[in-house]
Amino acid sequence: MLIDVNSYVGHWPFIRLKGNTLKEQLVRMDRAGITQSVVFNLNGIFYKNVQSANEELHEGMKESAAYRKRFIPFATINPIYSGWRRDFEDSITKMGFKGIRLYPLYHGYELTNPACIELAKMAKDHNVPIAMALRMVDSRTSSWLDINKEWALKDVLPLIKAVPDAKYLILNLANNSNFGAFNKEELAMVRSTKLLMDTSGRMVMELADMVKNYGEDKFAFGSHYPLLDPDTGLLRIDALRPEEATEKVKNLIYNGNAKSFFGL
Question: Which UniProt keywords apply (predicted)?
């Protein structure tokens, strides 16, 4: 059984995507044996009013009972855009989204922004996870029109420190995201927080060491599809040798940690 905690529908303005609809995602899931997928709408990055992207995804989910059963939809919220509190309430309480997605680099705010911290506290109070990616695409090969800043795992710590009892989904680990980047206090914070990281990012080539140092409950299969290929995130788990991870630990990464994190 597989649960993919990082997939997308919608469009990316700088490259042509395939497999970026709910229908196409479902085909991919069936082929790969993926039972459920967390899904984000890429359009929420680029729409001035991100709620339009949430409404799109909500309307799409209503088209099929299979979509509602197989997808775990997250709403994009921009905490510096007028009406974001209403967007949050409508998305979570009326449309039934299971988490929220933040894009600070694209929407132009710091994680220490008071509105962002307020949003994280609202998510905590509603018991829904907060998702962020360290990068969407590799800045070295991105369009000249795209942003070229990327984060390391340490860059998300200010929000975790401000709201430590929220749940965080950290995606596409890149750059200096290994345990050596932290001091003892920071490493203890990562280990103690309800935090899940996916296997799609470049730094997860060191998955065995990361599991050892962050904890076996901190990782879950994620593809970052269709921006990345659908297989690499899975191969990183499959390739773990017996001395690196028991079958129990591998199953936690395949599905167990996601089940616990999302209450499935």
Answer: Lyase
| 55 Cβ contact partners less than 8 Å away, ≥ 6 residues apart | 95
Residue pair 79/51 in contact (Cβ under 8 Å)? The answer is: no
Q: 84-120: per-residue pLDDT in tens?
A: 999 999 999 999 999 999 999 999 999 999 999 999 9
Task: List the domain range (segments joined by +) for residue 53.
Answer: 2-262
Give the chain's domain count.
1
Q: How far apart are CA 219 and CA 159, in angstroms?
A: 20
Give backbone dihedrals phi and psi of 49, rounded to 5 degrees, phi first. Answer: -100, 100
Q: ω into residue 226 within 30 of 0, thus cis?
A: yes
